[in-house]
Amino acid sequence: MKFLVLFSTVLTALTSQTVTAAKHFQYTGVSESCAEFGQGNLPGTYNRDYTYPTDASLDFFIKGCSNLIRLPFAWERLQRTLEGELDAEEFSRIDGVVKYVTGRGQNLLLDPHNYNRYRGQLVTPDQLANFWTKLANRYKDNQKVMFGLMNEPHDQPTEDVFKTMQAAINAIRATTAKNLITVPGNAWTGAHSWTKNYYGTSNAEVMATIVDPANNFMFEMHQYLDSDFSGTHDTCQSASIGVESLVAATEWARKLGKKILLGEIGGGDNALCYAALENTMKYMMENSDVWAGYAWWAAGPWWGNYMFSVEPNADSSPKPQWTKFLQRYTQCSA
After folding, report:
1. Angle at alpha carbon of residue 151, lines to 149 and 155, rounded to 5°
2. Looking at the domain covering 27-333, what would its CATH class be?
3. CA atoms of 78 and 86, how far apart (whole Å)
4. Is the pTM of this model over 0.85?
């Protein structure tokens, strides 16, 4: 019961503020997750092991005033061998989504959803640089396309994550591409762990020395609100857990004069999680000199009844987290 009271209080306090919420966010959107499915069967069969978001799904979020679509995909499908050419058929599928989204004036964040690995093996700086050279050359003339270097590196020295990301940045800029780049850290790029060192040297220490010749990048962090920050539970630790998780990373980025995109966040359809999510968004708005926006995890046609899904139902009706929370934090809220 106390959670219901807390949620009601927080929601009432924030209602007037969320009317202008999106004025504080450059990017508000969702991850359209489905093209990275079927990791156990690579490259797999299209529309059996994996798929791409439908126009109807994209339209729901674009018309709902989301100006950012994050597109996870499997590197192994787009580049069938390391340092090989991009697969024409797979590229055409990605390109179809890119053109659909950016043709409607919105932003598309490319997301190789690979954890700094290729077929389960850690990649080298040269291998990621080769991949991004090829992809950047395809999209350097479309500034609505954003380059998310890699999803959630983990279980490797942070210094190696730095080397791989820096090599990718250098390779992208060598193509003359000026597109916005988002740079992850180690340890699943968690905001809550950014300044900690239980996984090795902290992201705060190592990633601070990232250099972008074009000076057009943000750090990408992810943050879930459950007991182990994994996003695998529909319950949240507390109403304040999101704020507590972001404070140290916010202070770190501000000292560097850098911005952060919250590339993944999600929470369950319950009062405590809504309170935690509201508080997190309020904190990000109050610190919008650092926080550029967010992408919710997740949308996508194959999620079914997944606890965080905001993919519209079969009858086109919206999911609870969209109506109760997210739609108040879109560009239409401005």
Report:
1. 115
2. alpha beta
3. 6
4. yes
Task: Identify whether the C-beta of residue 3 lies closer than 8 Å to the C-beta of residue 10.
Answer: no
State the first-to-last Cα distance of the chain, in angstroms, to the nearest integer.
Answer: 33
Q: Find tokens 């650092």 and name the residue.
A: 290
Tens of pLDDT along the chain (334 residues) come to 333 333 343 444 444 444 344 457 999 999 999 999 999 999 999 999 999 999 999 999 999 999 999 999 999 999 999 999 999 999 999 999 999 999 999 999 999 999 999 999 999 999 999 999 999 999 999 999 999 999 999 999 999 999 999 999 999 999 999 999 999 999 999 999 999 999 999 999 999 999 999 999 999 999 999 999 999 999 999 999 999 999 999 999 999 999 999 999 999 999 999 999 999 999 999 999 999 999 999 999 999 999 999 999 999 999 999 999 999 999 886 5
Q: Which long-range contacts does 104-108 make (Cβ < 8 Å, 24+ apart)?
A: 104/62, 105/144, 106/29, 106/62, 106/66, 106/67, 106/68, 106/69, 106/144, 107/27, 107/29, 107/67, 107/68, 107/69, 107/144, 107/145, 107/146, 108/68, 108/69, 108/71, 108/144, 108/145, 108/146
Is the separation of the CB atoms in 310 and 321 below 8 Å?
yes
In sequence order, what E strands does 59-162 have? 68-73, 107-112, 117-118, 121-122, 145-148
Q: How far apart are CA 254 and CA 290, in angstroms?
A: 6
Give the residue carrying structure tokens 């942070």. Answer: 158
Residues 30, 295 contacting (CB under 8 angstroms): yes
Partners of residue 112 on adjacent β-strands: 73
Active site residues: 152, 264
163: which 2 tokens? 């080397």
Amino acid at 245: S
Question: Distance (Å, rounded) from C-alpha 299 to C-alpha 124?
Answer: 31
Q: Where are the domains of the chain?
A: 27-333
Instruction: Identify the three-state secondary structure at position 175.
Output: coil
Strand partners, 31: 70
